[in-house]
Structures are given as C-alpha cells and as structure tokens.
C-alpha cells in the first residue's frame, strides 16, 4: 500500500474544502501560469511525438482567447510517474501540459499517445488524456477527456465512453491530422463538449 | 490498513478515492457574473469514476521554482510601492492531512489595483518594480510562505460601478488530478464583498469565509511587514474504496 491514513483523523460531517474561483482574465502575466515549456511535454528529438491541437470556443461559436488548457496523461506504456499508481513504475514522462489559448482560441501540445489502463473494477480504459479548462467566466475548472480515433475497439468497451450519451460521444474523440490529432472544445451550444464531474 | 484479506494487491488495483464537496463550490452558471453566460456548459456534468488518471497528478518539483519566486518584493532592482505583507499558511486536505511538496502559484494586481497585463485597461499606474507573480513549494508539513505587496481593489465592467475586492489568485495541484484547485484569497472585512458576484458565487457563507485570510500577528515582521494567514483545504482521500463504503455515513 502506498497510501497512509492520518492517525489524527477527525470525524468530518461535511468536507470543508476551499471553494474554487475563476482564473480570471489576467493569469498570463510575464513569468506567470503559461510556463515557457508548458505545451511541450517531450525532449527535442522524441521519436513518438504527436502534435495535439485544438480550439476553445464559447456558446456563440466565438474563440475563447483567454483560456488555459491543462492535460494529464500516462506515457505510451500506460505509466504515471506517481506514488499512488500501485503498478510497477518506470517512467520519466512529465505527463502534464499547460497551454494558454491564443487570440484565435487555439492551443497545442507536443506529447505522446497514452496507452490503455486497468481499472479497479477489472475493466480496461481506452487510451485517453484528461483535460482541465480554466477561463474567465468559468467559476470552477471544467474537465473533459480526449479519446483517439484509431482505437475504435477499445473505445467501444471503455467504461466512461460507453456510459455517455451516444449522440454526444463524438465530442470526446479527437480527429486524426497529418502530425497527430485535433480536439476542439466547445464550452456551450448544440455541440457542447461532454464535461465531467470528477 | 491491511489489504491481505482481499487478495494480492497486484491482482487488484486499490486506489484512493477523493471525496466530493460540491456544496462549497460555485455553480458554473451564475448569471450575476456576466461572463458565465456564453462560457459555462449548460448540459449536466457526467460523473467520471476515479481511476488511475484521476488519482494521479503531476509531481512538480523545486525545478519549477526560482530563487526569488517566493518573494514578490525582491524580483526587480527597486522595491515595489505599497504595503508589504507576509502571506503564509498550510495546504491540507479535508481529512486534515497536510499536502507536502506541492506547487503553489500566485498572481495579483499591484498596490494600485493594476495587473502587468496588456488586457488590463484600469487607468492606475504600473509599478516597474512589481510583476505580481510568485511560486513556492509546500514543505513536508504542507506549509507555504510568500512575501508580497497588498493588492489594490480594481474596477471591472460586470455591472454598474463594479469593483473586485482586493485578492490574490492561487493555483494548487495537490497530489492528484482530482485535487486541482484555482481560487482567490480575499482580505478580512473588505467592504466590496457584498457587490462582487465572483465572491458571492459561493452560496454558503461558511464556505465564503474559507476564502478570506486572517490577520496573523505572530507572522508579522516588526518594523517591516504585516502578515496574513491563509489555509487551503483540498479534497481528502479515503485510503481504499472499501473504507469509502463504510465511512461515507453522516456523523
Ligand atoms: Fe484578479
């Protein structure tokens, strides 16, 4: 076991966490949240690099130029560099990326395609990337998942993807491009992206 | 806790599960905050089970933190104008456990309420000696500490004569994707709270109080700086899903 319980655990009726507030319009101060290496998860000549690009848009279909997109994912063998992953560990992969959207709402990451993952219930999750979206006008982060178009079999049995409304399932699947994948995020509207409560 | 009775851990994944606290957080759709109208998703959120991707998260180390990142008053040649303050506290989870070695990022307006950002049109002076950006790591007990300048209130165009109460933006990772938190720290007794739809978007008054720091006499530096204390509470984890089942009752 890698987790420990505190010996001084107090009985909690309501888990009194600190509330979320919007990231606001000014997080992109010089030297601030958009790290210089934020969108690039890989060393210069990584052989398995893929480009993940997308656009963040609002309910009017307009680009969101002041959003912050974060991704979290396994490496190409399904490993996380994290002490709470109880499986055999061996990865240096950062797994985390952060990109401020541009004037056209566009964001990008240079990363690897993740691998399938086992679940505690004995199922297998198809390769996916978790996404956090932060922006002015969002009082809390919103979370979505990117799945991949070249995994139709794994996607069909993925416990998360198969539980969502089939009519909206496509909003969670990226499209293939010449050098990787594209995943647009629509915050609102008829083709609103599926967002998750974690 | 022993897991022997439920078989070999290598046969079965045992993952921590992070408790939800929806009552403390603002609704995405908060019409009083005008920018939510085109940006907040309107469809119901789908429940995401907490599997490997959710219970892990970026392990960011000291390589992310520069030498003067914790002291926003020494990042330039001269000293910034304004009231020098120490802001310190602990990052804990809702079980009361400290969150050690986690990255804390802050950003804020200067003493006159102006951000060093091209989009900030508030006609208040920039301070050449203040960037308004800081970072540090919590120590092994979850403690963090910044030195900065007390930020000014600033106007915005949400409604007639709208002003944001003075605040410092905070970004936290915790230990897992589920614990990610972006929030704002406010100062005690601010007369602008009543008209701020962002602060008021947290409907529970007790939860709102958890965003307000406390004056902290013990951390003041005599003849140098006043001090405020601000603890941040992230979601807590149950050790195993099995405990979650038996612990989840009220009490
Ligand atoms: Fe602000």
UniProtKB/TrEMBL annotation, chain A:
Pfam families: Dioxygenase_C
Position of the signal peptide: none
PROSITE patterns in alphabetical order: INTRADIOL_DIOXYGENAS
Assigned keywords, A-Z: Dioxygenase, Oxidoreductase
One example GO MF annotation: ferric iron binding
Region Disordered, annotated ranges: 1-24
Domain Intradiol ring-cleavage dioxygenases stretches: 52-80
Tagged with keyword Zinc-finger: no
Chain intervals with Polar residues compositional bias: 11-23
Family to which the UniProt record says this protein belongs: Belongs to the intradiol ring-cleavage dioxygenase family.
NCBIfam families, A to Z: protocat_alph
Protein name: Protocatechuate 3,4-dioxygenase alpha subunit
UniProt source species: Actinopolyspora mzabensis
Automatic annotation (TrEMBL), chain B:
UniProt key word NADP: no
Gene Ontology terms, MF aspect: ferric iron binding; protocatechuate 3,4-dioxygenase activity
Record-linked Gene3D superfamilies: Aromatic compound dioxygenase
Keyword entries, A-Z: Dioxygenase, Oxidoreductase
InterPro entries referenced in this protein's UniProt entry, alphabetically: Intradiol_dOase_C (IPR000627), Intradiol_dOase_core (IPR015889), Intradiol_RC_Dioxygenase (IPR050770), PCDO_beta_N (IPR024756), Protocat_dOase_b (IPR012785)
Span of domain Intradiol ring-cleavage dioxygenases: 87-115
UniProt keyword Electron transport present: no
CDD domains, alphabetized: 3_4-PCD_beta
Pfam families in the cross-refs: Dioxygenase_C, PCDO_beta_N
GO biological process, alphabetically ordered: 3,4-dihydroxybenzoate catabolic process
Region (Disordered): 20-39
Family of the protein in this entry: Belongs to the intradiol ring-cleavage dioxygenase family.
PANTHER family recorded: DIOXYGENASE, PUTATIVE (AFU_ORTHOLOGUE AFUA_2G02910)-RELATED, INTRADIOL RING-CLEAVAGE DIOXYGENASES DOMAIN-CONTAINING PROTEIN
Identification of the protein by name: Protocatechuate 3,4-dioxygenase beta subunit
């Amino acid at each position: 076991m890698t987790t420990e319980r505190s010996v001084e655990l107090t009985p909690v009726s309501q888990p009194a966490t600190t509330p979320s507030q919007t990231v606001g319009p000014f997080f992109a101060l010089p030297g601030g949240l958009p790290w210089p290496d934020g969108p690039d998860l890989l060393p210069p000549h990584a052989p398995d690099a893929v480009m993940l690009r997308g656009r963040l848009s609002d309910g009017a279909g307009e680009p969101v130029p002041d959003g912050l997109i974060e991704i979290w994912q396994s490496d190409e063998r399904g490993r996380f560099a994290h002490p709470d992953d109880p499986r055999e560990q061996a990865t240096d992969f950062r797994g985390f990326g952060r990109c401020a959207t541009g004037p056209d709402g566009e964001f990008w990451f240079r990363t690897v395609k993740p691998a399938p993952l086992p679940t505690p219930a004995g199922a297998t999750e198809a390769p996916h990337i978790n996404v956090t979206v932060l922006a002015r006008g969002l009082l809390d982060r919103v979370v979505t998942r990117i799945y991949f178009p070249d995994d139709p079999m794994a996607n069909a049995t993925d416990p998360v993807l198969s539980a969502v409304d089939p009519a909206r399932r496509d909003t969670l699947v990226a499209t293939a491009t010449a050098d990787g994948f594209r995943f647009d995020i629509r915050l609102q509207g008829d083709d609103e992206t599926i967002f998750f409560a974690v | 806790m022993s897991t022997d009775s439920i078989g070999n851990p290598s046969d079965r994944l045992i993952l921590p599960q992070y408790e939800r606290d929806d009552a403390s957080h603002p609704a995405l759709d908060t019409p009083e905050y005008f920018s939510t109208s085109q940006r907040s998703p309107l469809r119901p959120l789908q429940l995401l089970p907490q599997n490997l991707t959710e219970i892990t998260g970026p392990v960011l180390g000291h390589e992310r933190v520069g030498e003067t990142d914790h002291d926003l008053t020494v990042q330039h040649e001269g000293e910034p104008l304004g009231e020098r303050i120490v802001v310190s506290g602990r990052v804990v989870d809702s079980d009361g456990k400290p969150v050690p070695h986690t990255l804390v990022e802050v950003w804020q307006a200067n003493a006159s309420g102006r951000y060093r950002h091209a989009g900030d049109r508030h006609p208040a002076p920039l301070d050449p000696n203040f960037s308004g950006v800081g970072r540090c790591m919590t120590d092994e007990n979850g403690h963090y500490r910044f030195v900065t300048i007390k930020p000014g209130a600033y106007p915005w165009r949400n409604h007639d004569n709208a002003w944001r109460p003075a605040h410092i933006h905070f970004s936290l990772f915790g230990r897992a994707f589920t614990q990610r938190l972006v929030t704002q720290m406010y100062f005690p007794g601010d007369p602008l709270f009543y008209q701020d739809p962002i602060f008021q978007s947290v409907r529970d008054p007790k939860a709102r109080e958890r965003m307000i720091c406390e004056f902290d006499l013990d951390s003041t530096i005599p003849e140098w700086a006043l001090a405020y204390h601000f603890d941040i509470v992230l979601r807590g984890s149950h050790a195993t899903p099995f405990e979650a089942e038996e612990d989840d009752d009220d009490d």
